[in-house]
Amino acid sequence: MIAELGHLALIAALVVALVQTLIPLYGAAVADPRLMAIARPAAMVQFLAIGISFAALTQAYLVSDFSVVNVAMNSHSSKPLIYKISGVWANHEGSMLLWVLILALFGAAVAAFGRNLPLDLRARTLAVQGLIGVGFLAFILFTSNPFERIPNPPLDGNGLNPLLQDIGLALHPPMLYLGYVGLSTTFSFAVAALLEGRVDPAWARWVRPWTLAAWCALTAGIALGSGWAYYELGWGGWWFWDPVENASFMPWLAATALLHSAIVVEKRGALKSWTVFLALVAFAMSLLGTFLVRSGVLTSVHAFAVDPDRGLFILGLLAVAIVGSFILFAWRAPKMESGGMFRPVSREGGLVLNNLIMSTAAATVLIGTLYPLALESMTGEKVSVGPPYFEATVVPIMIPAILALGIGPLLAWKRANLKAALIKLWPSYLATAGMAVVALVLLGAPVGAILGLSLAVWLAVSVLVEWADRIKLFRIPFGQSASRAAGLPRAAYGMSLAHLGMAVFILGAVGETFFSSEVVRYVDPGDKIEIAGRELVFEGVEHRQGPNYVAEVGIFKLEDGEVMESERRVYPVEQTSTTEAAIRPRAWGDIYAVLGEKADNGRSTIRIYVKPLVLWIWIGCGLMTLGGLVSLADRRLRVGAPGKRRAEAWTPAHAGMDAGDD
Predict the structure, then answer these.
(1) Which residues contact residue 343 at a Cβ distance below 8 angstroms, ignoring those fewer than 6 apart?
(2) Beta strand segments in 213-264, E
(3) pLDDT grade, residue 187 (50/70/90)?
(4) Residue 185 and residue 132: Cα distance in Å, rounded?
(5) Residue 111 domain flag
(6) Contacts of 236 by beta carbon, 8 Å cutoff, 6+ apart
(7) 606: buried, middle or exposed (CB in 10 Å: 19+, 13-18, 0-12)?
(8) How many CB atoms lie within 10 A of CB 302?
(9) Residue 433: C-alpha distances to residues 331, 419, 424, 442, 499 (Å)
């Protein structure tokens, strides 16, 4: 009965989404405030209906209702509670339900916190958000019903892929979806602005918080997925340029460019058309990721094995969203005025450079991801585009961006003195040169490592120099500098934290990439393994019973007496095995041990890695996310920050005055 209630709630959500789309759009076209006002309660009701549906599916998992096909195929009565809950979205149908739940959540958030938005802009934005909901709710109801029943239910379920029986499943997909789907809000704002024919600094201020929220979630989601792969798959890596990994990286690059571009619109009224275009592209990249995961075109640890017909449905949604929005953009964008002018050497110029680099990187990743798929579909020929391609193309593209990050914040708006900014960065030059000497002379590092470490130091010190310049450190009495530091807006601290996080991330990535060590060998109990100047003793293998698996546990003892345990788990229900790595995280680097299969001679196969500085990869991602959240807490960037008087100033009559923009 509860499953049927969930199904009915989904149908009701589709009806409400249609109402949310059609009536407010018509109301905005005829300037009827009563019809436009319907968008707000409709968004709330749609979220409530989908929430009821999601709760119904969760309840079916909690009670192991195997009369529901989705539960029978992806759960088991012996599964621990946390994996029963996370199993709700560990499959195609449940993950799509989570997708539309988050979509409706963002729509309800715009309705709840966007009270200061102009009525017609809010109505159109929520209508577009509702239209996206119509497409995906129809997809779920007609091709991916999560509440389908089994006439003769089994006594127990098939279980869940053991790789997914991990806390990472509880954290990574929801956070990643918050980022993916959060970009739908900026898309909706962009389409609403195109329909209105108006983009101005107030619009940019309304858009920035939603972009920032999605960017934070996407950054955290990618980092969580990377960490999950690092400790769960047992291969010792954290990024493989897998097509689905790339599908999350591309919208992150586009969202990063959008964030910086929106600043130019807000501060100078320039780059309007480009900012709207980026908002469309960022969500298009998110939809592309959804298609890649669910179309059946990929064989990936991330991909759902689903009927390709479902992929065609999503491809249709992707085509409608992208083609339709780009046609609208081509029609309306040329009519927007260009806004403020600025010199190439200026803060705006630096942000434009950032946009160009991020866009180029995103295009490069897109080509490398789709080319093998396109070639195979057209000729049947299979080619592999892997890490060597991306490392040889994307990494060099990003180097100018890192250099610009150190200089850009020191430039003035509209017109800047580049020489003065470069002079202020003298501590960065000294620190960068010092790191290069240390890396070359003391570490004997290769050229790539020297360059990477130097870039990390350049950016980190430049961030500190920019902050010191803001508070006039050492140029005025210390008390006055402290007062200036306390008075800096949170967005300024957020920017510094995010840029510092990028520097820390680079440090970790360079350390892991260039200085890692690996040992693979057969061992008997009591054997010693030496690696990178460290020694481990293999103590032997124990057999243990888990809640829904049996495990062989390899025990390793370090020089300091600490014990590490790596497991090979066998899941009887799923008839699958997994490897659980033993990791000792330290600031200088991780020791990473993996127990492999036994050889024919009865000896154990083990792999030991030393991963210098790898922990700083996730510390850097955490700092970037924290920086975004700190910026989001700035009262000037809160949703609805523009004052009511400004919001009321946007009317259809005013909109006509701007028909003519860039």
Answers:
(1) 349, 414, 415, 416
(2) none
(3) very high
(4) 10
(5) yes
(6) 230, 516, 518, 581, 592, 594, 607, 609, 611
(7) buried
(8) 18
(9) 51, 20, 16, 14, 20
> Are 49 and 22 contacting, i.e. CB atoms less than 8 angstroms apart?
no
Rounded CA separation 392/380 (Å): 26
291-309: per-residue pLDDT in tens?
887 765 655 544 554 566 7
For 372-379, which contacts have Cβ atoms below 8 Å and span 24 or more sequence positions?
373/243, 373/297, 373/298, 377/297
Other Cβ atoms closer than 10 A to 344: 12
- 32 contacts: CB under 8 Å, gap ≥ 6: 26
- Tell which of 160, 194, 214 closes a domain: 160
The better pLDDT of the pair 479, 234 is held by: 479
Give the amino acid at 139.
Answer: F
* Residue 542 included in any domain: yes
The length of the chain is: 662
568 is written with which tokens? 């090979």
Q: Select from 475, 379, 384, 377 the least CA-distant residue to 424.
A: 475
Q: State the Cα–Cα distance between residues 77 and 484, nearest whole angstrom.
A: 60
Task: Dig out the tokens for 454 from the structure.
Answer: 């130097």
How many angstroms separate the CA atoms of 639 and 635, rounded? 9
| Stretch 7-35: mean pLDDT | 97
How would residue 640 be classed by pLDDT, with cut points 50, 70 and 90? very low
- Helix ranges, 380-425 (H): 387-407, 418-424
Dist CA 107 CA 579 (whole Å): 41
Q: What is the token pair recorded at 623?
A: 């700092």
> Is 448 within the bounds of a domain?
no
* HSE value, Cβ hemisphere, 13 Å, CA-based, for 332: 25
d(Cα 591, Cα 101) in Å, to the nearest integer? 40
pLDDT of residue 297: 61
The DSSP result for 73-100, as a single string, is: HH--TTS-HHHHHHGGGSSHHHHHHHHH
Q: pLDDT grade, residue 654 (50/70/90)?
A: very low
Per-residue model confidence (pLDDT) at position 334: 84
Q: Coil, strand, or helix at residue 269?
A: coil
Q: Residue 491 domain-assigned?
A: no
Tokens of 226: 């990377």
DSSP reduced 3-state for 599: coil
Averaged pLDDT of the chain: 90
pLDDT value of residue 379: 85
Structural domain total, the chain: 2
Q: Among 93, 30, 83, 88, which Cα is nearest to 59's? A: 88
Hey, what amino acid is at 529? I
Report the candidate in 548, 512, 481 with the shortest Cα–Cα distance to residue 238: 512
The pLDDT assigned to 31 comes to: 94
pLDDT in tens, 62-79: 999 999 999 999 998 888
pLDDT tens per residue across span 562-605: 999 999 999 988 888 888 999 999 999 999 999 998 887 889 99
Single-letter residue type at 393: T
Q: Which of 137, 207, 215 is nearest to 181 (CA)?
A: 215
- Percentage of the chain modeled with pLDDT above 70: 93
Query: How much is the pLDDT for 638?
Result: 57
Domain span including residue 571: 517-613
Confidence of residue 32 (pLDDT cuts 50, 70, 90): very high
pLDDT of residue 296: 58
* Residue of 185, 238, 235 whose CA lies nearest to 214: 185
